[in-house]
Amino acid sequence: MSVPEFAPAKVNLALHITGQRADGYHLLDSIVGFASIGDKLTVSEAATYQLTATGAFVEAMPKVEDNLITKAVNWFAANCSENPNVAISLEKNLPAAAGIGGASADAAAVIRALAKLWDKPLPTAQDLLFLGADVPMCLASTSCRVGGIGEELIGVASLSGTPIVLVNPRVAVPTPKVFGALKSRNNPAITNPDFTAETDVIEWVLAQRNDMQDAAKVIAPAINDVLMALESTFPRIARMSGSGATCFGIYGTQDAANEAAQKVATINPNWWVTCGQLI
């Protein structure tokens, strides 16, 4: 039996850092969406554990034993009293250390696939925090407001179908470095939403911010170039996702998003540029 699973890119439409706990973990208040752009994997029963990968970003992946997918498989198998011997085929389409949850999305996707393969319930968000703050939200892979250190998930109005462009200058930005460069860790939380239609959601998101953006731009100045390139295409919003360096533009129509992606890619042929929709 084989189980295919999609690992969509996570997009922090807004990301506020509201504090830091005594143990060092940062408190988040984030509005997260997921894109039709992502990695693809298939999980099959096997005699031994295998992880094989293809795609544009294979070279950036850690060794099999250090991969977050492997850690997720071993933990979930032990938690379910199952044999971790499965064969995983991964198509790696998302860049690493890019602020869009690539490794976390893969780990979450493999857990969803194993739950289907083994007929087991999905773990809780709290259970998955040890794999990283992005894994619980990636397991859900639906529009949500994220609080705590990543374990508090609250559903928000769907942005499904919203046209989006993702751009990365092919510069890896390690999240710990960005946290270390933050000038403030006690920022205001996201304002409570007050909208009645999908069009108002975007306006509300526009009024929010990404508290990691300025710190990330110091570490990776190319983020400035990406944001300016996106802004030149007149999106409704242009902002960095997560800790960067990937930035996104949201557009009023799919044609506008397609044209924007083509323009940015033509002028910057060495960047990773892709377009799709929020799901």
Tags for this model:
single chain, 279 residues, alpha+beta, Ribosomal Protein S5, domain 2, Alpha-Beta Plaits, 6-stranded mixed sheet, 4-stranded antiparallel sheet, 10 strands
Topology:
Blueprint: E1 2-20, E2 26-45, E3 50-54, H1 68-80, E4 86-91, H2 102-118, H3 125-128, H4 134-140, E5 144-147, E6 152-155, E7 163-168, H5 175-181, H6 198-206, H7 213-219, H8 222-231, E8 237-240, E9 247-250, H9 254-267, E10 272-277
Parallel strand pairs: 3-4
Antiparallel strand pairs: 1-2, 2-4, 2-5, 5-6, 7-9, 7-10, 8-9
Helix pairs in contact: 1-2, 2-4, 5-7
Q: What report would you give on this structure?
A:
- The model has no long low-confidence stretch (mean pLDDT 95).
- With 279 residues, the protein is an alpha+beta fold.
- It has two domains: 2-154, Ribosomal Protein S5, domain 2 (2-Layer Sandwich); 158-277, 2-Layer Sandwich (Alpha-Beta Plaits), CATH 3.30.70.
- A hairpin with a 4-residue loop joins strand 5 (144-147) and strand 6.
- Strands 1, 2, 3, 4, 5 and 6 form a six-stranded mixed sheet that branches. Strands 8-9-7-10 form a four-stranded antiparallel sheet, sandwiched between helices.
- The two termini are 27 Å apart.
- It has nine helices and ten strands.
- It has helices at 68-80, 102-118, 125-128, 134-140, 175-181, 198-206, 213-219, 222-231, 254-267, and strands spanning 2-20, 26-45, 50-54, 86-91, 144-147, 152-155, 163-168, 237-240, 247-250, 272-277.
- 32% of the residues lie in helices and 28% in strands.
- The longest helix has 17 residues, at 102-118.
